[in-house]
Design goal:
By secondary structure, this protein is of the alpha/beta class. Among the domains are: 1-90 and 532-575, Urease, subunit C, domain 1 (Roll); 103-236, Diaminopimelate Epimerase, Chain A, domain 1, CATH 3.10.310. It has a seven-stranded parallel β-sheet. A six-stranded mixed β-sheet has the order 3-2-7-22-23-24, with helices on one face. The longest helix is centred in the middle third of the chain and has 21 residues, at 240-260. Bound molecules: zinc ion. Residues 96, 98, 269, 327, 476, 479 line the site of zinc ion.
C-alpha cells in the first residue's frame, strides 16, 4: 500500500513539472525517452527503497515504480531496456580523487603491482630504450611494503638509486609513491632538480641520505617539489596547443574510465585555474564525460580576488561545479611516515610525521572559503592533523556565526582522536574517507601506530557514522584503483589480501556502504537534491550491475560487473 501511495506522489511531482510546458504539449511529456524495466532497482531512498522500473524524460528521472505502472510511460519513441532482473543503483560518486592525474596515469608507468624494486628498474630500463635522451620517464604507484624481495641497501625499507640510475643515465626518472607524498628519483632527475650532497631540504620535506651524506633518491613530502618542478619545467617547453591537447586527453580518459566503473560523478581534490578554464570550455562544448566537482589547490594569495568569478554550481547542464578549496595537505601519508600524529610513530619513534602546508596558509584559505561561499576540504591523515584542522575550522566559523551548513570537509581522516569525534559533529564537518584504504593500508598500519592506537583511532569509519556523521567513500584515484566495488567490499568486510580482517568492528552495513558511495558523497558536495538516489526529479545517473550488491555473499562481491552506465538519461557505457 505504501508503495502505491509513493508512486502516486511521484506522479504528482511529474504532473506539476509537466504543467510548466503545457504549451509544447503536455501529452508528449508523459512519454518517457527511456524506460528501464524488469529490474531490481535499489533506490537509496528510505520511502521507496526498492522498485522494478524507471522512466526517464530528458536527463532526469520522471518516475520510479513497478514494471506495470511504469509501462504507461512507454510510447512509440521510448527506448525500452529490459534489464532481466539485473540490479540498478544510483551512479556511484567518487568522493575523493585527482581527476587529471588519474587521466594522466594511463600515460605513465604503472608501478602499483610491481613486487620488487628490481622489477621497477627493469620497467624503467625498457621505457628508457623508447625515449629520446633528456626526456623524462615518470612512473607512479609503487609502495615498498608490497615488495616481496628486498635487495640492495635499504634505508627505511627503500633502496639507493644506483641500479635505477645505471639503466637510465640520460633520462631523468621520477617515480611517484602510491600515496603521492614522496618520489624516488634517479641521478639525472636529482641533477635536473639541483639536489646535491649539500642541499638543505625545504621545511616539511626530507631528502633521505646515506650515512656518507649521499642522497638515496627518496624525497619525502616537500622535498619532492624540486624534482616535480624540474619535470614541470621540462613540460613547460611544450607549446600551449600541446599542453591543452594533453590536458584534454587526460580529462576525456579519466571520464571514460570512470564510466566503466559505474561512476557518474567525480569529486576532484586539487585543481587549478588553468584546468578550470579548459573544463569550462569543455562544459560549454558538452564534452566532459562525467559530472565534476572540483576543489582548488592554489596558493591562498593567488586565489584571493579570483574566487567569485570562478564560482560555478551545476554549470554546463550539471557537469561542472567549482565551489571548494582543497586538498592542500596539512600533513603527509602514513605509508611514508608523513601523517602528523599526536604521539610518535611506533616504528619510527623519532618522528611525529610532518606538517606540510603551513597552518597560516590553511587559515588564509579558510578565510577565503568563508568569504566567498566555498567549501573547505583540506587533507588531514594523522590525528594531530585532524585536531589542528578542526581548530582552524572552528576558529573561522566562530567569526561568522550567521553562516551555517557549510559542509567543510577533512579529507582522509584516517586517524582520529576520540575527543575529536564530537567536534566533527558539532562543527558539521564531514570526514571524507575512503573505504578501500582500510584494506590497502591495513597490512602495515599496526606497524606505524601500534596495536592499541590502531584499535582506538585507526580507520574508525563506522564509529564516525554512528556518531551521526555523513558516511562517504571513494578510492582517491590514481592513489588506489578507482573500482567502487573493491572499496564497497572493503567497507563491508575489512578483509585483507591474506584473509585476515582489519578493524572489523568498523565495517559499514551494505546499506550504509551504498549510501556512502551515493547519497553520502552527494551530501558532501551539496548535491543531494540532484544526485545520490533514484528519485523522480533527480538526474538520470544510474549504474546497472550484474548482481545484487546488497545480498550476494561477501566472497562473491568482487564478481559484480558493471553492465551499463547511464548518465543524464543516455547509455554512456555498455559492457
Ligand atoms: Zn587525494
Amino acid at each position: 500500500m505504501k508503495k502505491v501511495l509513493i508512486w502516486l506522489s511521484s506522479l504528482l511531482i511529474v504532473a506539476c513539472g509537466s504543467n510548466k510546458i503545457l504549451e509544447v504539449g503536455a501529452k508528449s511529456r508523459s512519454v518517457a525517452d527511456m524506460v528501464l524495466t524488469n529490474a531490481n532497482v535499489v533506490t537509496v531512498e528510505p520511502d521507496q527503497p526498492n522498485a522494478e522500473a524507471i522512466a526517464i524524460v530528458g536527463d532526469k528521472i520522471a518516475a520510479v515504480g513497478s514494471s506495470s505502472a511504469i509501462s504507461m510511460w512507454i510510447g512509440e519513441s521510448t527506448e525500452v531496456i529490459d534489464l532481466e532482473g539485473k540490479t540498478a543503483i544510483p551512479g556511484f560518486i567518487e568522493g575523493h580523487g585527482h581527476y587529471t592525474s588519474y587521466g594522466d596515469s594511463f600515460y605513465r608507468l604503472e608501478l602499483r603491482y610491481d613486487k620488487s624494486f628490481a622489477d621497477i628498474v627493469a620497467k624503467v630500463a625498457r621505457a628508457a630504450e623508447g625515449v629520446e635522451p633528456g626526456e623524462w620517464i615518470v612512473g607512479r604507484g609503487w609502495h615498498q611494503d608490497k615488495w616481496e624481495t628486498k635487495e640492495g641497501i635499504l634505508i627505511d625499507g627503500i633502496p639507493v638509486h644506483d641500479t635505477l640510475s645505471a639503466v637510465s643515465p640520460n633520462n631523468p626518472v621520477m617515480l611517484i609513491h602510491t600515496s603521492g607524498h614522496g618520489v624516488f628519483a634517479n641521478q639525472a632527475a636529482m641533477d635536473a632538480a639541483g639536489i646535491t650532497k649539500n642541499t638543505i631540504p625545504p621545511e616539511g620535506g626530507e631528502i633521505v641520505r646515506k650515512e656518507d651524506g649521499r642522497a638515496t633518491g627518496m624525497l619525502r613530502e616537500a622535498a619532492q617539489d624540486a624534482v616535480r618542478d624540474a619535470f614541470a619545467e621540462f613540460e613547460a617547453q611544450r607549446t600551449p596547443e600541446q599542453v591543452e591537447a594533453e590536458l584534454r586527453r587526460a580529462i576525456i580518459t579519466a571520464g571514460k574510465e570512470s564510466l566503466k566503473y559505474g561512476i557518474t560523478s567525480f569529486q576532484d581534490l586539487g585543481t587549478n585555474f588553468k584546468e578550470v578554464d579548459l573544463l569550462k570550455k569543455m562544459a560549454n562544448e558538452g564534452t566532459i564525460p562525467v559530472r565534476l566537482w572540483m576543489a582548488f589547490e592554489e596558493q591562498a594569495a593567488d586565489m584571493d580576488g579570483k574566487l567569485d568569478q570562478y564560482r560555478m554550481v551545476n554549470y554546463g547542464n550539471n557537469f561542472l561545479t567549482i565551489r571548494a578549496i582543497g586538498e592542500k595537505v596539512l600533513d603527509g601519508a602514513l605509508g611514508t611516515h608523513g601523517g602528523w600524529l599526536h604521539e610518535p610513530y611506533s616504528d619510527m619513534p623519532s618522528s611525529h610525521g610532518l606538517n606540510v602546508v603551513p597552518i597560516k596558509e590553511i587559515e588564509y584559505s579558510a578565510r577565503l572559503a568563508m568569504k566567498h561561499g566555498y567549501q573547505l576540504a583540506i587533507q588531514g591523515i594523522g590525528d594531530r592533523a585532524t585536531t589542528e584542522l578542526l581548530d582552524i575550522y572552528s576558529a573561522e566559523m566562530k567569526k561568522s556565526p550567521d553562516k551555517t551548513d557549510l559542509r567543510w570537509r577533512i579529507e582522509h581522516a584516517q586517524v582520529i582522536a576520540p575527543s575529536d569525534i564530537q567536534r566533527f559533529v558539532d562543527l558539521g564537518v564531514i570526514p571524507a574517507v575512503q573505504g578501500i584504504f582500510a584494506c590497502s593500508d591495513g597490512p602495515w598500519v599496526e606497524d606505524r601506530l601500534g596495536k592499541e592506537r590502531t584499535l582506538e583511532r585507526g580507520y574508525i569509519f563506522n564509529t564516525l557514522y554512528d556518531a551521526g556523521l555523513v558516511p562517504t567513500n571513494g578510492t582517491d584515484p590514481p592513489v588506489d584503483e578507482i573500482d567502487p566495488i573493491s572499496s564497497f567490499k572493503c567497507s563491508v568486510t575489512r578483509e585483507l589480501p591474506d584473509g585476515s580482517k582489519f578493524q572489523e568492528q568498523e565495517t559499514y552495513t551494505r546499506e550504509v556502504a551504498l549510501y556512502s558511495y551515493t547519497m553520502g558523497n552527494a551530501i558532501a558536495a551539496f548535491e543531494e537534491d540532484i544526485k545520490g538516489s533514484i528519485k523522480p526529479g533527480k538526474l538520470a545517473d544510474i549504474a546497472i550491475l550484474s548482481q545484487n550488491l546488497m545480498t550476494v555473499p561477501d566472497d562473491k562481491l568482487m564478481d559484480t560487473e558493471i553492465l551499463m552506465t547511464i548518465l543524464g538519461g543516455k547509455v554512456v557505457f555498455k559492457k
